[in-house]
Amino acid sequence: MNKLAKKATILGIVGNIVLFLLKTIVGIAYGSIAVISDAINSFTDIIASIIVFISVKVSSKMADDGHPFGHHRAEPIAGLIVAIFTGILGFEVIIIAFNKLLIGDGFVRGIAPIIVMGFTLVVKFGMYIYCVKVGREVKSTAIMASAKDHRNDVLISLAALLGVSGAYVGYGFLDPLVALLIGGWVIYSGYEIGVDNIKFLMGEAPSLELMEKIKDNALKCGGVKGINDVRAHYVGVLLQVEVHIEVDRKLTIYRAHSIGKKVQHCIENMEDVDRAFVHIDPVS
């Protein structure tokens, strides 16, 4: 398992546990449904961080007899589980907030909820910046999903901060109202994470720009006269590519095979590609 990826996932687990405990204690003590809702969101983050840690560890395993093309699907599967779990808890937050809005204000004024939410903002923003950096460096969709979750948490915590601040100065209805907005945002976040990861499980084709880069890399190899066809799809977070190259039909089988292997290596050296399969078409 990559050391940077491991560090990022462990940081996510520890950070979310600390924030969950802080927000739960303060939310219950002061009767703030906005803070409690954000604590529930932190609980989903703990589960998500653990799932991400496991998936990154599994996906880094080498190919074996049971998985000849590697374990790359582990990360998008984990992302999909996180998305479903996030959506369910988002609905729970909305139900709790709606009931609180109907019952009335039970908020106990105090500065502690404001301090906790301000602290959460700073921590989550730092976690977002760090995970984006690591996710891009190690090419991990699971860590990038965590980064997106941290970014969403910044916005959620900002909304909760506004809610508890409004309740503190006498506008108690803002606390459950903000909690409703948080619940809706959590549901949307789950949907967004799910959509991002489904494409990797469904074998979606890469962007046209990336397809052109694959063609260009193949054409740069000596002996390639042209490209007949290129196909590519995601297997987990990496691509499998099938390319049909044209070579001089007068070449020996050995020479044509050498050109094909060179093309294969050129394509597989691309950071988004796992495997390349080269078909050789003889032309005059």
The total domain count is 2
Protein structure class: mainly alpha
The CATH architecture of the largest domain can be named as Up-down Bundle
Give the class-level CATH name of the largest domain.
Mainly Alpha
Work out the number of β strands. 3
Textual characterization of the structure:
With 284 residues, the protein is mostly helical. The chain has two domains: 3-201, Alpha-lytic protease prodomain-like (Up-down Bundle); 208-283, 2-Layer Sandwich (Alpha-Beta Plaits), CATH 3.30.70. The protein has eight helices and three strands; from the N terminus they run H-H-H-H-H-H-H-E-E-H-E. The protein has helices at residues 3-30, 33-59, 74-103, 112-138, 141-168, 174-201, 208-219, 253-268, and strands at 226-235, 238-248, 273-283. It has a three-stranded mixed sheet. Helix 5 runs antiparallel to helix 6. It is elongated. The two termini are 48 Å apart. The mean pLDDT is 81.
